[in-house]
TrEMBL record:
SMART domains: TSP1. One of its GO terms (molecular function) is metal ion binding. Residues 193-386 form the Spondin domain. Residues 1-22 form the signal peptide. One of its GO terms (cellular component) is extracellular matrix. Pfam families: Reeler, Spond_N, TSP1_spondin, TSP_1. It comes from the Eukaryota. Residues 27-193 form the Reelin domain. It is found in: Secreted, Extracellular space, Extracellular matrix. This is Spondin-1. It comes from Amphiprion percula. Residues 719-755 are annotated as: Disordered. Keywords: Cell adhesion, Disulfide bond, Extracellular matrix, Glycoprotein, Metal-binding, Repeat, Secreted, Signal.
Length: 806
């Protein structure tokens, strides 16, 4: 360090105060190696910061949702804020691995993403750190932080604050956030990313999608009429193919899913990847978005993975929405132990595809140009967002996905099975795949399996065949050309995901006749609907003829089953309905059939006064009653039936709250104080008055005007020569005051015709911020005989204080 250069500690502190000073320091100390010394430069910044640990709860570094742990690769919104009336001019935010010093590249955890370039920028000589773009007063800044990959351990986010010339920094407290990597719900099943897989054989999985997005869980602006999930599209694939990922750009296929809910282009893109894709995953759309599971089964699909294609991705649109989706990206199903994950469960929050700039469910199309990167939605994106939370809390998940392993095939590397079912499945698979075909026997491929010999859920058999093409050695017999395996009827096998699973038949009902020929029936019910969402076509009822006591009386007759009841004769109130049956076989002796063929009973319809309530559909919601802030909106429907028919009690108008961007709030000032006394006893002087800022402007309101006014004052003309004499006396008083401060414990001030006590101390300011007043007094200690009453009196001075905004 040469004598001409400034002290490095001073420059480091200046660096934290201003990015311009930071650049100046880099040029001064290391003009030729600025780019190559970034890491060492960062560590020096951290050491400089660590010299000040002034705890201050007015400042806070917060990660959205206040998580105690992070998901590897996930993106979080980080906010640095000051509590009113505090503010800061400059700042530094950096993320380090726990215990790291910042000397090496690997010491830094994750990476930051700039949200507003006018507010934030990467530090020129320390790229991992974020600092201010320009030094000015501010109360909050925000950046995105993407967590490091799996295995990174604990991280520490640190912030420093520059307020005037004071640096606040904390190793622990409100300016430091400590987070560790979140452990998987199922041990090592979902380590991510595990790009090189060492597992053997293949595995088969079932993915099930549970949509939890409903008006109950997400009530704000929930779209009641058109809510749905689009068709789900995805695949199992290799590391060379990326369907979608945070921080990446949407392909045309992803864009069409996100904006239109159409999977066609996405499926085309997937199939074009050839060997990089093993299975295409597809599930039907769900209208409406949510129904109880006992009404509609959760959609599911099956897919396979192998060593090279062990990743699974999918997406589905949350509709209606601008371009919002949920899904998994490159979920790794290969474990570190060279096996296949048994089960993966994840809650899903929506993400933005970066192709449309709308911020509500039903925003009009507004293409984003240029296209933005894919990012997760947050609760602070926009006040009109349905997920908005002014506190920045975590978004409630809108869906859950469960991926379960249902089979493994081929020789497995990890020979320890996960459970008893795996042991049985592995043994059965090994037995089935044994092939005792001699090399001298040349066969065609096996034909498809035949239909099962059993049409019920009882056990049957099915067959497949192959043809012997050549027998190269006649001394070696060739094995069978037919193969059989047990099976059950359609819908009875758990492995058949495209058919219904039916219950056993219930016992036959009693015969419809107590004598002679009749009919009986039996029923069964659907135990499980098809996983692909199709309709069950298998019969749920069977009928057959029956005969009771064939030697019945010849006068008996055979009648049909009762028909359906007719419509009630009344449209409201009490009415009658009837049903009939027919004589199928008259008595053998020619007599009249005595069985009843007509039944009549009463029926009750809704009370008649409800007929007038024939209503039109609801109109669209009106515009919000205000142009900004909170308001109301309404919708109406009309009565279609005549009023003369009765009173309708149904509501014809609905009102709900609506929220638009906050209204501008202008600055509010207090009244002016009285003018102070003139600062001169004769001749020209000045007087002042002040006022305070009662409310700072917000949301673009009018700025605050001046808080201090000054005007000239003139009490009386000074006597000729008296002015010079007064000026000499005033200078003499000042000299005596200075001597009094140096050599005397108490001094006095002189005024023409009297001796004054010294000025009192300034009083405390009447306000902590927004403009206050301080005053001090000088009182008369002794009056001379020659003193005039008007020139010898107590004096008071007033000044403004704490004029900074609140």
């Amino acid at each position: 360090m040469t004598a001409a250069g400034p002290h490095p500690r001073v420059l480091l502190l200046l660096c934290l105060f201003s990015s311009a000073a930071c650049n100046m320091f880099a040029f001064t100390e290391e003009p030729s190696e600025r780019a190559g010394k970034a890491d060492g430069y960062c560590s020096r910044i951290l050491r400089a910061q660590s010299n000040r640990k002034d705890g201050n709860s007015e400042f806070r570094l917060r990660v959205e949702g206040d998580p105690e742990s992070y998901h590897p690769g996930s993106t979080y919104r980080v906010t640095l804020s000051a509590t009113s009336p505090s503010y800061f001019r400059g700042f530094t935010v950096i993320a380090l691995r726990e215990g790291a010093e910042g000397d090496k590249d690997e010491d830094y955890a994750g990476n930051f993403q700039i949200i507003d370039e006018e507010e934030t920028q990467f530090m020129t000589n320390c790229p991992p750190a974020v600092t201010e773009s320009t030094p000015r007063r501010r109360t909050t800044i925000q950046v995105f932080w993407t967590a490091p990959p799996s295995g990174s351990g604990c991280v520490v986010l640190k912030a420093s604050i520059v307020q005037k010339r004071i640096i606040y920094f904390q190793d622990e407290g409100s300016l430091t956030k400590h987070m560790c990597e979140k452990e998987s719900l199922y041990g090592d099943a979902t380590d991510k990313p595990l790009l090189d897989c060492c597992a053997c054989g293949t595995a088969k999985y079932r993915v099930t999608f549970y949509g939890n997005w409903s008006e109950k869980t997400h009530p704000k602006d929930y779209p009641r009429r058109a809510n749905h999930w689009s068709a789900i599209i995805g695949s199992s694939h290799s590391k060379n193919y990326v369907l979608w990922e945070y921080g990446g750009f949407s392909s045309e296929g992803v864009k069409q899913v996100a904006e239109l809910g159409s999977p066609v282009k996405m499926e085309e893109e997937i199939r074009q990847k050839g060997d990089d894709v093993l299975t295409v995953i597809k599930m039907k759309a769900q209208w409406p978005a949510w129904q109880p599971l006992n009404v509609r089964a959760a959609p599911s699909a099956e897919f396979s993975v192998d060593r090279s294609r062990h990743l699974m991705s999918f997406l589905t649109m949350l509709g209606p929405s601008p371009d919002w989706n949920v899904g998994l990206s490159a979920e790794d199903l290969c474990t570190k132990e060279c096996g296949w994950a048994q089960k993966v469960v994840q809650d899903l929050i929506p993400w933005d595809a970066g192709t449309d700039s709308g911020f509500t469910y039903e925003s009009p199309n507004k293409p984003t140009s240029p296209q933005d990167k894919i990012r997760p939605l947050t609760s602070l994106d926009h006040p009109q967002s349905p997920f908005y939370d002014p506190e920045g809390g975590a978004i409630t998940p809108v869906a859950r996905v469960m991926v379960e392993r249902i089979a493994r095939k081929g020789e497995q590397c990890n020979i320890v099975p996960d459970n008893v079912d795996d042991i049985v499945a592995d043994i059965a698979q090994e037995e089935k795949e044994e092939d005792d075909t001699p090399e001298t026997c040349i066969y065609s491929n096996w034909s498809p399996w035949s239909v099962c010999s059993s049409a019920t859920c009882e056990k049957g058999k099915r067959m497949r065949q192959r043809m012997l093409k050549a027998q190269l050695d006649l001394s070696v017999p060739c094995p069978h050309t037919q193969d059989f395996e047990p099976c059950m009827g359609p819908g009875c096998s758990d492995e058949d995901a495209s058919t219904c699973m039916m219950s056993e038949w219930i016992n036959w009902s009693p015969c419809s006749m107590s004598c002679g020929a009749g009919i009986r029936s039996r029923e069964r019910y659907v135990k499980q609907f098809p996983d692909d969402g199709s309709i069950c076509t298998l019969p749920t009822e069977e009928t057959e003829n029956c005969v009771i006591n064939e030697e019945c009386s010849p006068s008996s007759c055979l009648v049909t089953e009762w028909g359906e009841w007719d419509v009630c004769s009344a449209t409201c109130g009490l009415g009658m309905k009837r049903r009939e049956r027919m004589v199928q076989m008259p008595p053998a002796d020619g007599s009249i059939c005595g069985a009843e063929v007509l039944e009549v009973e009463k029926c009750m319809m809704p009370e008649c006064h409800t007929i007038p309530c024939m209503l039109t559909p609801w109109s669209d919601w009106s515009d919000c009653s205000v142009t900004c802030g909170k308001g109301l909106r309404t919708r109406q429907r009309m009565l279609k039936s005549p009023v003369e028919l009765g009173e309708c009690t149904e509501e014809l108008e609905q009102v709900e709250k609506c929220m638009l961007p906050e209204c501008p709030i202008d600055c509010v000032m207090s009244e002016w104080t009285e003018w102070s006394e003139c600062n001169k006893s004769c001749g020209k002087g000045h007087t002042i008055r002040t006022r305070m800022v009662m409310l700072e402007p917000q949301f673009g309101g009018d700025p605050c005007p001046e808080t201090i006014q000054r005007k000239k004052c003139k009490i009386r003309k000074c006597n000729r020569g008296q002015g010079n004499s007064d000026e000499k006396k005033r200078r003499k008083e000042q000299r005596e005051k200075r001597r009094s401060k140096q050599g005397r414990t108490e001094g006095t001030s002189e005024h023409p015709g009297c001796r004054m006590r010294p000025w009192s101390s300034w009083t405390e300011c009447t306000k902590l911020c927004g403009g206050g007043i301080q005053e001090r007094l000088m009182t008369v200690k002794q009056r001379f005989k020659t003193a005039q009453l008007s020139s010898c009196k107590d004096r008071k001075e007033i000044r403004a204080c704490n004029v900074h905004p609140c």
